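Before a computer can learn anything about folding, someone has to put a protein's shape into writing. The outcome of that step, for a single protein, is printed below:
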Amino acid sequence: MHKAGFVNIIGNPNVGKSTLMNAFVGEKLSIITSKAQTTRHRILGIVNGDDFQMVLSDTPGIIKPAYQLQESMMSFVKSAFEDADVLIYMVEIGEKELKDETLFKKITNSKIPVLILLNKIDKSDQEKLEKQAELWQNKVPKAEFYPISALEGFNVKEVFNRIIELLPESPPFYPKDQLTDKPERFFVNEAIREKILMHYKKEIPYAVEVDTEEFFEEENIIRIRSIIMVERNTQKGIIIGHKGSALKRVGVEARRDLEKFFGKQIYLELYVKVNKNWRSNQYQLKRFGYNQK
């Protein structure tokens, strides 16, 4: 008997969805920073066993959209309800509600198995944990509840094994050696964007998109040319920094991560261009792979 299914992870920003997915997959597919809106796309991670295939889906954190890009991000979240065989709703200690009431109703009325994972319990005490457990079990009585620490690995294996039990019987959806549905250039873009999220403040990280124009793989090296898009000239100056120092730091750190990810030497060229108001331009959003519904 072979099992296979889609396991979709949703929740508010910063609850640790990407950390959990990377722990399940065993590879760094989703970028992780302490800033909200780190994940912009729906990213699939595929875990294969002899008799199962788990297709995990990490979605953007649930927010109230303020502009076109955020509308597109929320369309990825809504699509997570359409093909899920198991739904994971992640919350963290101290959280009391999902930011979108309509989505919360979908969770409480779901006909598929729902697991509520209370994350970051390593930062809590027993009393708080018991109160939170009672709160969420009352709010979503049909769901299975698990306290976890995605970062420390507490209860992650138990949740993983439970998901396998819940998967429907099915042949695999993807080849057994495939790790994700995204192309190499996507992970280059994300590695660069992660460093920008880490090193720049205020509006800068949210005004940035990365476009990899060239990706040439040779036997011992991968040659990459990527463009960092910003919305204004002032942002371009900040990204580059004094004598190019800030941009150089992004390049050096992204290259290190990409060499680990691809297992090869990387030659990375970075350029910065102004692409005015790309976050509100439907044509540009489509070009960067955001759903337009």
